[in-house]
Amino acid sequence: MAHRGNLVIVGISVGLALGIFIASLVFFGLRWYKKRAHLRRCANERCTTTPMSPDGTRMAKLQALTRVDIQKATQNFTTILGQGSFGPVYKATMAIGGVVAVKVLASNSKQGEKEFQTEVSLLGRLHHRNLVNLVGYCVDKGQHMLIYEFMSNGSLARLLYSQEERVLSWEERLQIALDISHGIEYLHDGAVPPVIHRDLKSANILLDRSMRAKVADFGLSKEEEFEGRNSGLKGTYGYIDPTYISTNKFTMKSDIYSFGIILFELITAIHPQQNLMEYVNLASMSPDGVDEILDKRLIGECNIVEARSLAAVAHKCLHKTPRKRPSIGEVSQAILKIKQRHKEGTTSFAGEDISGVVNWIELQQMELSKMSSVKEKITE
Ligand SMILES: Nc1ncnc2c1ncn2[C@@H]1O[C@H](COP(=O)(O)OP(=O)(O)OP(=O)(O)O)[C@@H](O)[C@H]1O
């Protein structure tokens, strides 16, 4: 009898425990479901309605302008800033105040039409201090225009390669590298859904009046031409991930590759279409080889230990196996560390005579240019 009584007690306890377990499962399951539904609602809201800024505040909606507004603001399209593959870009002074840049998409460009819709819907919801924000658009009689915040210091490519520009200091270059990294980080890790840029290059990095860098032109990637024919590949020659060429699959790691190229541009001021990778590969044959390809204008003006560290980050970004390349978050962390060390002034030569190092770098650079000119002669 007592044995039976025990069995009943055990049965009731097991039943109770099971009941409690199932009830908590239902309770927590419901909570999890509600939370997910809430997150999804927030994400959708970000995609379709008023965009959010990175600090969570709501941004103004995109402004729709008429062709007449823009005609007035650009003095009848006479204030040209430059010509891109999608059409001309004009500086516009708006009647309500403020200066903007207007990109007029060539009306004969079928691709421009398609990309226009992509960019308007994409950019309308993407806002970050390191992205060139879209502030408005214009659709008028089949003509499409995109209106961006004005970047008074132009492109990084112009700053690095134009003789008329002043030399970018090492400190500015470190800040630019970090700004670009943060812009890409927002695209890859902050945007919902994530955005792959597909055409990262120094011409698509623009600088504001405080020399802070912003990433431009996402959603506008174009097909690259090889020998006058469309290759079917998106991006720009010199920046395209070789794995993308062989697999036709563009991933975030292809953006990381292009960013690695931009980092080397910052270090060397050699354009990727002027054999940058050949110099990088030659220099990587010797330890500290980056000294040999350092921008001549930086010799004696920058901390070589920091330049070597940045080159090491760039090398990782260019790893031939995409999954071995770092994520953009890791790249930002690494650049931030270099920048902090720079600020603290802790990257020193431990008693080395700096003038000796400078002379040595100059010698190495001469050797390298001799090597590459011999190589050019052989390949001719
Ligand atoms: N928001 C802006 N503020 C100031 N200048 C700009 C702005 N956007 C573009 N520009 C300038 O206008 C010119 C053309 O830019 P665009 O982005 O159309 O072409 P690109 O990036 O140089 O070349 P591609 O179209 O082949 O990628 C460049 O000189 C660029 O610096």
TrEMBL record:
CDD domains: STKc_IRAK
Catalytic activity annotation: L-seryl-[protein] + ATP = O-phospho-L-seryl-[protein] + ADP + H(+); L-threonyl-[protein] + ATP = O-phospho-L-threonyl-[protein] + ADP + H(+)
Entry keyword set: ATP-binding, Kinase, Membrane, Nucleotide-binding, Serine/threonine-protein kinase, Transferase, Transmembrane, Transmembrane helix
Taxonomy, superkingdom: Eukaryota
Stretches that traverse the bilayer: 6-30
EC category name: transferase
Keyword field contains Protein transport: no
Annotated coiled-coil segments of the chain: none
EC number: 2.7.11.1
Signal peptide per UniProt: none
Gene3D superfamilies reported in the protein's UniProt record: Phosphorylase Kinase, domain 1, Transferase(Phosphotransferase) domain 1
Protein kinase domain span: 75-336
GO MF annotations, alphabetized: ATP binding; protein serine/threonine kinase activity
Protein name per its UniProtKB record: non-specific serine/threonine protein kinase
